[in-house]
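User: Can you predict the 3D structure for this chain?
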Amino acid sequence: MTNNIDILACGYPSLDRIIYINDSPQFHKTTIIKNGDYSRVYMGGCNVNIATILSVLGKTALPLMRVGDDFETSGFKNFLEERNVNLDGIEKIKNVNTSGSLLIEDPQGNHITLFYKGAMDSDYKVKIDEMLIKKASYLVITVGEFNYNKRAAELAIKNNIPIIFGMKCDFDAFDHDLLKKIIHNSSIIFMNGSEKIEIEKICELSKIENLFKDSKKLKCAVITHGNKPAEIIYLENDEIKKSSVDIIKTNNVLDTTGAGDAYMAGFIFGFLNGEKYEKCAQIGSTISSFIIEKKGCLENIPDKKRLEKRLTEYYGG
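Assistant: Here is the predicted structure, written as structure tokens:
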């Protein structure tokens, strides 16, 4: 077992199949699949995406999750090992498959996601090694099975391990009580514009900045807005400050699946390296710009050299 862990990332793994269709699907009507590689499996899941990108960039990042009998036969295990992902946080469940998704997109860019929970179903008992939690510098919590996320959060809070939270409006993964608990114990929170509104409602805030008054642990809140500049709200010398950081725009967008996870991973990479929050956001945008240029969440992870080159080209030295 590894001794020093930069990041533990908790959430659903996902064996993704990406399907492009010619029209919006309807019951009692055949819809034509446009891409011949519709059956190809792409490795993913929010926690897997974050842990894998960080591992490729040299950090010790472990996905915390359950997988099924197909972990080896699907190529998932080999995929992670080839990218230096430590597997100590993975539990294998017998007689069930790993969770997976069908990601369906129509010509207008509208998405339907069909998800199979598999080994991450709530039917299975939660077993998380507390020693892994204790060895981690941070616990990243993303969309996952409710009881699994709850237990991971409880162990992190018990052992004073800072939480980095990827806010998703998935109330199967987080009910309001769990959301409040995680939010008030997080060091960094990532959200988009609509998720910001939900947090303000759930936590009864007149504005998101008031989170810093309610929580003694929160250091930074990141609000993304698609291809528009991201808002970075952070504490500096006990003063709340704000920055706006441009997003890299690329003409080679092929698939935006996993862009948000890539942004989180890049931001966390900068944060672990002691960079200022604005620089962390720039790194997040840069890694995300690579990911969206190929199909699949993890098919175009840059190495440090490519990352630094594009980062410098867009944002300067």
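Residues 172 and 188 are 22 Å apart (CA to CA). The mean pLDDT is 94.
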